[in-house]
Amino acid sequence: MSLRRTSSGATPMTQIFSSEADVVVADPGNLAAELAAYWSGYDVEIETVGARVTAKLGIGSGVMEPVDGALRFRLECSELGNLEILRSAVTETLAAFGKREPLAIEWRGNMPTGRLFADFREVRLVSNVAIAPRIRRLVFTGDDVARFGSTADIHVRLYFPPEGLATPEWPRPGPDGRTVWPEEGRKPDVRYYTVRRFRPETNEIEIDFVMHDDEGPGSAFASRARPGALCGMAGPVGRVAPKAGWTLLAGDETALPAIARMLEEMPRDTQGLVFVEIDSERDEIPLAAPPAVVVTWLRRRGAPAGATDLLLRAVETAQIPQSDDVFVWVACEIMAAKALRKHLRTARGLARDRHLVVGYWEREVEEAAAA
């Protein structure tokens, strides 16, 4: 662990957790290039200086550099829990790349000391009520859940244990950095959700569940769970739209809880546009938008989610000011997100720090699961 200091070298500012590993491989430079290309496909920002490759990996950063016949990795995060998750993801990626050349990976630095991940908490359901025809609000409580009340990172990972399991079992960090999961039949399903609100006075977390026709793990839990039910919660992760004079928010119903929260927390003098793709009028909910932010509901009218270009056409025709005080935030199906990101960067010329486009779900995966 290290401490970032101010430019004057005075008071410690930010605690940094780090891990390193030297991976012996026949061609370290080629492995670094392959990993950089792989991450670039997921819109990871890559910087290459000589043989040194730096990747901005969302919850932290990674540096790869050939050293004495090995590829040295260094991961840095501001939270130990994020470091554990990032280390697990990088190790899994390396293991996949190592199928043609087995790789020995031994991490050092800030290693796990607990039975569970540092950012993981077991939580208990307090209440479960319908707030709209297809949205249920679930309220959770537990030990140290205030960590999920962040205003910068608003998403959490929820772990749903198999129905009927008397004692839930949770993933834990393994010795090589990878996640060790319970055996099949006891393994929880994991989905990402938006923290709608944290109530510090009662130590409770509100999360809105969008109920889908093809019931996934989250919808199944929300439709049946009663107060006292247990699940796991980890995080927080995921960025919000930063404060800007003019903001565009766009997404399908999976992004509606995040859009609703961001609108509530926006300065009241913000200007902008909001586009929300839904199936029909019955999916609309009240949104506390600032007076100068115009909300438009885009209705599919029975078309499958992720199968239309409603969001893309709305954003393409939107009047976005030519200004440095603009931010565009989009969350939707993965292929739709790719098309929107391409439009914002090429047709609009928006810099990376002026927009965030996230793929929340993948249509092909959802269809395969429902088949």
Automatic annotation (TrEMBL):
<dbReference type="InterPro" id="IPR039374">
    <property type="entry name" value="SIP_fam"/>
</dbReference>
<dbReference type="InterPro" id="IPR014543">
    <property type="entry name" value="UCP028291"/>
</dbReference>
<dbReference type="InterPro" id="IPR013113">
    <property type="entry name" value="SIP_FAD-bd"/>
</dbReference>
<feature type="domain" description="FAD-binding FR-type">
    <location>
        <begin position="118"/>
        <end position="243"/>
    </location>
</feature>
<dbReference type="Pfam" id="PF08021">
    <property type="entry name" value="FAD_binding_9"/>
</dbReference>
<dbReference type="GO" id="GO:0016491">
    <property type="term" value="F:oxidoreductase activity"/>
</dbReference>
<comment type="similarity">
    <text>Belongs to the SIP oxidoreductase family.</text>
</comment>
<protein>
    <submittedName>
        <fullName>Siderophore-interacting protein</fullName>
    </submittedName>
</protein>
<dbReference type="InterPro" id="IPR007037">
    <property type="entry name" value="SIP_rossman_dom"/>
</dbReference>
<dbReference type="InterPro" id="IPR039261">
    <property type="entry name" value="FNR_nucleotide-bd"/>
</dbReference>
<dbReference type="Pfam" id="PF09981">
    <property type="entry name" value="DUF2218"/>
</dbReference>
<dbReference type="InterPro" id="IPR017927">
    <property type="entry name" value="FAD-bd_FR_type"/>
</dbReference>
<dbReference type="InterPro" id="IPR017938">
    <property type="entry name" value="Riboflavin_synthase-like_b-brl"/>
</dbReference>
<dbReference type="Pfam" id="PF04954">
    <property type="entry name" value="SIP"/>
</dbReference>
